[in-house]
Amino acid sequence: MAGMLRTLLKSSAARHCGGRPVRAFPALRRFVSTADISSAKYSASCFPSTVGLRDLDTFPRRHLGPRPEDVSEMLKVVEAPDIETFVSNALPPKVLVKRALNIDPPQGLSESAMLRKLKEIASKNKVLRSYIGKGYYGTHMPAVIQRNIMENPAWYTSYTPYQAEVSQGRLEALLTFQTVIVDLTGLPVANASLLDEGTAAAEAMIMSFHHTRGKKRTFIVDKNTHEQTIAVIKSRANTLGLNLVVADLLSPEGISTLKASAKDLCGALVSYPGDNGEIPRITALQQIADTVHDSKGLFAVDADLLSLTLMHPPSTFGADIALGSAQRFGVPMGFGGPHAAFFAVREELKRKMPGRLVGISTDRLGKPALRLALQTREQHIRREKATSNICTAQALLANVAAAYAVYHGPEGLRDIARRVHGLAALLARAVEKNSSHKLLGDGIYFDTLRIQLSGESADQLMNRAVNTYGINLFKVNDSTVQLSLDETVTEKDLADLAELFTGNREIPDGVTDFPEFPPEWQRKDSILTNSVFHEHHSETAMLRFLYSLQQKDIALTTSMISLGSCTMKLNGTVEMLPITWPEFADLHPFVPRDQAQGYLQLIDELEHDLQQITGFAKTTLMPNSGAQGEYTGLSVIRQYHHHRGEPQRNVVLIPVSAHGTNPASAAMAGFKVVPVKCLENGSLDMADMEKQAKKNKDNLAAFMITYPTTYGLFEPGIRDAIDLTHKYGGQVYMDGANMNAQVGLTSPADLGADVCHLNLHKTFCIPHGGGGPGVGPICVAEHLKGFLPKHPLAETSNHDTTNAIDPVSSGPFGSASVLPISYAYIKLMGGENIPFSSVTAILNANYMLYRLKDAYKIQFIGSDDFKYCGHEFILDLRPFKKYHIEAIDVAKRLQDYGFHAPTMAFPIPDTLMVEPTESENLDELNRFVDSLLSIREEIRAVEEGKSEGLVLKNSPHPIEDLLQDDTVWSKRGYTREQAAYPLPYLKNFKTWPTVSRVDDVYGDTHLLCTCPPVSAYAE
Ligand SMILES: Cc1ncc(COP(=O)(O)O)c(C=O)c1O
């Protein structure tokens, strides 16, 4: 296999011509056929009337909203005779390629065949007992949580809670997560999750660096920290030019190293417990904290959440930052992710905190209401000056972890922790009493034992462990192994372990004397005192609690969510089913390769299909969000320039219209951002592009552009901009988050780009989960593949990694357990049908645009350059400003119509960006358009000075508002009926906002980010 791959690599290696790579791919185009995107194909292939002997349960007709007859109607509205003509007018001629995709099977698998195929793949994964630890542990996801959150579209299909009034349920769950973290770490402010433990640790380093205003560049990490965490920190340190030192901070030499670095020290990080399982002494940790503080640096502690239910919290020994993974709070290992990382800080640091933060504010009626707080520090506003590039995080998994804490409560969690420690201690006793192996360390551990073997090598013991008992351990060196116990360990498992190490299944004193956690290490305070952690311990209570939260929110279960730039398409149930199968859910990321053959096959095939779609040569699935993909792609470009002896190339050109994560990621990857102007009509200002490229020719590293652009336009000058970049020695990074408009019609490689990321959680059906998980793979051209990231504990690719960049995530394949979703989507659609996802997404958007264009100004569309938009368009509400009507009024009023607002204020202030996706049917598109047209009449009432228009400013109207007495309503100038049921369909079904308009300013000036006592709500 390796030999075959090497031959392949050689034959397709990039050829360099005059210093610039010549890609093999475009030459191939001559030999491949053209995709059929005709109306006839849409009917016959996606909506077949007969399928002969084939399965009836075909998928494209379930994924695509409009039926062929609807399409005919919609084409009339957009003034096009057929699909093909429409697409030819929507995409510029130099852009429309229609390269046929070599994706198997061309017609797609039926739903039942897909499940059979995935079962077959899953069965190639061997689920053994994994005690490998290193940040990943077995855990029981309570069935009530699995069924009602993890597998429940009301939770997993929602977006980041931008529209607070219809998101109070998941905001409350995220606030609960923050409360868990605050209680267990002892620090006063925690965010609503980060991507994983490694990146959270890297964020701690970056926060420390910013804390010194960039003046101090040395960060020291204790060597007893997980390898993958150190490697991710190293990757970020390299790109930012920071000096990373790994030292034994718990030794006197470590303290000397800290002192010696004082002048340049921005911070230090210690793991608690350490990678080898040892728990440092509080006095030693306090000494490190004091030393770091003496040099004005920040002290970060990478902690284990479960052990914190028993151990002193990091706040007791001077931590400024506490971080770690919440995985073992009910989230399966999933071959490495997705899992929620946590991040808590001292009060003074809250404004520098990366990621999303939920806070409590009040609504228009003075009622407590939750919302996202301190958003002005995020990349959407601060761009390259943002505290971090985090946009998508791990909301769904944070909600699972919060629910796990709610369900078990403080005593339940402590019982789990005591049991885990007790099991480890029993095993330790058995090893000490009944074997000649030696337990390493000073005997103070939580769940992890390091054992030096006698009479048997690590390999011999590990072979016996796998073959006789089905057990995986971690090999430290030839004579030492390590293992971590967890919640799932049974009596039999313990006996197996005892027998493995001692030859005897007996557990000394096992029943009579369950060992206790050492008292001097035990925290004495009460944890999780809020009532939410005490009220939902029966399954009935928990079920109702979760249901009550879900009822408050708009998700795809209630109506379309037309958030521009977010692609809220169908997350097909058949795609979702496999992710909780044990064969995918219960694999540790560092198991031997032969146990992960199913995953490796799936990853291989998915990478192949993504390469077909993007036209590129190689993929990494490691980045776990779009923004992480951006960081990875730019780091690869950076490495490429360094490798070619051009390290001075440090400028990235980014159009002013770009998504906020673009400049934030470029800054994080160590680049200087130079903006490129856009013209009045929304397209790139090519003259400015040329000027900037020329001006920076010696330092030009890359040009970074989203396609279709963030204005929803198929930029006609894209190929010229790409050629220009190459002419001046730069690489082209295409932000492929908008790939939903490109599949099968054009591609980054066809257009000449060098690297792109994809948001699998947009284009490829991974649900948004209320703000994560995400998967942001990057695909690269041949000449860049050697620079894709490696991993210290696992093989990530089958090519030479000598020049590879350090890892960008803790898991070798990022959020591996959700990859079956994208895999299934592509295979269900098939190579011939999947282009219709893009075609229909573009048609749906233009249908809405054409129905709305006489009522609203549509930004950029209507000129000779742009007859049509791409897959999204911008409603310009600025003309109504003179009547004091703003985008926020329309956004909030849409909630009264049962809809989530489109994207507000991005990419242009006071506009709404609408993206319907291909999965919405004509009825739903019409309902949304009719709502906007009805709102237009309400705006007209304002223009004409009629009182009915006041309904906009008072929106949304929760039931509590409607029930106010007549003295209130007589002054309103509009009726309750108009407020609540402005269109007839609402009387049949409506999702109600549960609070009235939330006061953003109050929330930020009175920041409160943990669950308040229930009395506060009652007041
Ligand atoms: C164009 C574009 N680029 C980048 C991103 C960032 O992706 P993520 O939120 O996964 O970090 C987004 C997110 O929606 C996007 O729309």
Automatic annotation (TrEMBL):
Protein EC: 1.4.4.2
Main localization, broad class: mitochondrion
Q: Extract the Pfam families matched here.
A: GcvP2_C, GDC-P
What cofactor does its activity depend on? pyridoxal 5'-phosphate
Q: Which GO terms describe its biological process?
A: glycine decarboxylation via glycine cleavage system
Q: Which residues carry this modification: N6-(pyridoxal phosphate)lysine?
A: 762
What Gene3D superfamilies would the database entry show?
Aspartate Aminotransferase, domain 1, Type I PLP-dependent aspartate aminotransferase-like (Major domain)
Catalyzed reaction equations: N(6)-[(R)-lipoyl]-L-lysyl-[glycine-cleavage complex H protein] + glycine + H(+) = N(6)-[(R)-S(8)-aminomethyldihydrolipoyl]-L-lysyl-[glycine-cleavage complex H protein] + CO2
Can you cite an annotated GO cellular component? mitochondrion
Q: Give the Gene Ontology MF terms in alphabetical order.
A: glycine binding; glycine dehydrogenase (decarboxylating) activity; pyridoxal phosphate binding
Keyword Transmembrane: yes or no? no
Q: Which NCBIfam families match?
A: gcvP
Q: Tell me the function of this protein.
A: The glycine cleavage system catalyzes the degradation of glycine.
Q: Which family does it belong to?
A: Belongs to the GcvP family.
Oligomeric state and interaction partners are given as: The glycine cleavage system is composed of four proteins: P, T, L and H.
Protein name (record): Glycine cleavage system P protein
What organism does the record attribute this protein to?
Brettanomyces naardenensis
